[in-house]
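Hi R.,

Here's the chain you asked about this morning:
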Amino acid sequence: MKTLLNPRDKEELLSRLQEVGPASSRRWGKMSAHQMVCHVSDAFRLYMGLIAADPPGFPYPSKILKLASLWVPVEWPRGFKTVAEVDQEKGGTRPGEFDRDVGELEGLVNRFTRNPRDFQWPIHPYLGRMSEVEWMRLGYLHTDHHLRQFGA
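And the predicted structure, written out as tokens:
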């Protein structure tokens, strides 16, 4: 299973990111390609504890949700509501200049995968406490989901 612990899987994602441009058409959802880049960047900020998210207000974190979302080999469902802090129509980072925002995302992926780490793993608002292996799997899956959203 693919993970950001594998350097080849990481490079694959970063290469696919280069296939997305500001005019890329979405296959589903409401975000533009530029909003997606900012959304995925905000997600990595959340994963590293650089921003915090309020709990979603229902019975999460869930071990069953974590197991299913990280390890069951099916594509993630489309339209799953995210927390406001990484929602570009609510509290997420607003798009600026596309190439700069793509570079920011690349830097966040590199920081997330660097050893030694300069951050502590936070508690995920939906999935609870997670191991390094789980965080690296989540980072891969979430990025892959949104790159596929834009055909990359």
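The chain has a mean pLDDT of 93.

Let me know if you need anything else.
M.
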